């Protein structure tokens, strides 16, 4: 099968933060590519036993961006209680969800840049102690890549589009 959504992995190697952010950005881009060009029915279509949908994955990742970078790293209390839900309410449009994700990404990137290095500690503890930005970046990259893989499968089931 030909990969119709192929994108090269980043070649950034200009330092730890540059490389980490490049791979997180790549993962985010892969998720956004999986929802591009689909209609609302396709984005909300449930193809697995769980409540996972393409739109639900984007909503979940929006909450993760806000929680891990907004609340945990930067200490913004507005994001302390996100629910990480994958069920998208019918009154929320795909555009609202996708724009929300793009906004959360921009906010997260601003928090990462403001942190002044991978050794900075989070404002909120993870478990019983703060973690470094390095840890949060690794966690969010793995979370985003994991869900990009789910999105790959759902998109292929919807219209046959493949690739990262």
TrEMBL record:
Gene3D superfamilies: dinb family like domain. Pfam families: MST. InterPro entries: DinB/YfiT-like, MST-like. This is DinB family protein. It comes from Plantactinospora mayteni.
